[in-house]
Write a structure and sequence with these properties.
It contains six helices and nine strands; from the N terminus they run E-E-E-E-E-H-H-H-H-E-E-E-E-H-H. By secondary structure, it is α+β, with helices and mostly antiparallel strands. Helix 2 runs parallel beside helix 4 and helix 5 crosses helix 6. Bound molecules: zinc ion.
Length: about 230
C-alpha cells in the first residue's frame, strides 16, 4: 500500500450506499483518480465539507493499486467564493472540470493540465474576466497539453499553410484545418475566428469578442468529444 499526498480538484461525486461517496479527483501529483470516501455523507470531520468542486483541496489517499483509492483525509486549502457567486463563472468552471474528467487519462500526472485548470479557476474567481472567453482559452490549452492541440495555421493532412485572411475548413476531430485539395471539412473557420483563436493561444484574451469565443468553444467542444469519446 502506498500513500498519496496531493492537492486536488473534485471533478465529480457519486453517492454509493447509505453514507459513502465516490469522488473523481484531479490531483496535482497523480492525475485523475477515483476515490472512495467512507462516511462522507455522515459528516465525517476528517473529510467534511471538503468535496466541493472549484475549491483546491489537500488530500491524503491510500492506494492499494486497485481501481479505487481510499480518501483518508481532505481539507480545503483555497476557497473560490467568487466562482460560486455567479452562474456564469460556475458554469464555465463546471465545463472545464467535465473536460478534465473526460480528457485526462487515469493515474497519469498532468502537470500542465493542472496548471491550466488552476489558472482558469483563479481568473474566474477574480471576477475580472469574461468567463466564456477564459473557458475557450483553457479548452485550447487543455487540448494542447494532452497532445491534441488544434493546428489553425496549416492543413493537418498535407501540411500546406492556409493563406492569411481567408476562410478555411476545419475538422476538430482531425486536429485542425483540412484544405480543399485534401477533401475539406464541413465546418468553416472564418478568418476573424482563426485570428481570435490564435490570440487566445497567446494569452491575448482582451482581443476576443463574445461571439468569437462562442465559435471557438464550439470547435473545442467537438475536439474534446472526438478525443475523449463523450457526447454533450
Ligand atoms: Zn491539405
Amino acid at each position: 500500500m502506498s500513500r498519496i499526498e496531493s492537492e486536488a480538484l473534485v471533478v465529480r461525486t457519486v453517492e454509493v450506499g447509505d453514507a459513502d461517496v465516490i469522488a473523481t479527483l484531479f490531483t496535482s501529483q497523480a492525475g485523475k483518480l477515483s476515490a472512495i470516501v467512507r462516511g462522507a455523507r455522515k459528516g465525517s470531520r476528517r473529510v467534511g465539507g471538503a468535496l466541493e468542486p472549484v475549491h483546491t483541496i489537500a488530500v491524503l489517499l491510500e492506494d492499494r493499486g486497485a481501481e479505487l483509492v481510499t480518501l483518508k483525509e481532505s481539507r480545503i486549502v483555497k476557497t473560490r467564493a467568487g466562482v460560486v457567486s455567479s452562474l456564469d463563472t460556475l458554469d464555465a468552471a463546471g465545463v472545464a472540470l467535465r473536460w478534465a474528467r473526460h480528457l485526462f487519462p487515469p493515474r497519469t500526472p498532468e502537470p500542465e493540465g493542472w496548471r491550466i485548470l488552476i489558472e482558469l479557476l483563479d481568473v474566474l474567481d477574480s471576477g475580472h474576466a469574461a468567463p466564456r472567453t477564459e473557458l475557450a482559452r483553457a479548452g485550447l490549452a487543455m487540448l494542447a497539453a494532452v497532445g491534441y492541440g488544434l493546428d489553425l495555421g496549416r492543413c493537418v493532412v498535407c501540411g500546406r499553410a492556409c493563406p492569411e485572411g481567408k476562410a478555411a475548413c476545419i475538422d476538430p476531430a482531425r486536429g485542425g484545418l483540412v484544405c480543399r485539395a485534401c477533401g475539406g471539412a464541413v465546418t468553416v473557420l472564418l478568418p476573424e475566428v482563426q485570428r481570435a483563436a490564435r490570440a487566445l493561444m497567446e494569452g491575448r484574451t482582451a482581443e476576443v469578442s463574445a461571439d468569437q469565443a462562442e465559435a471557438i468553444l464550439a470547435i473545442v467542444d467537438r475536439a474534446m468529444a472526438a478525443h475523449a469519446g463523450f457526447e454533450r
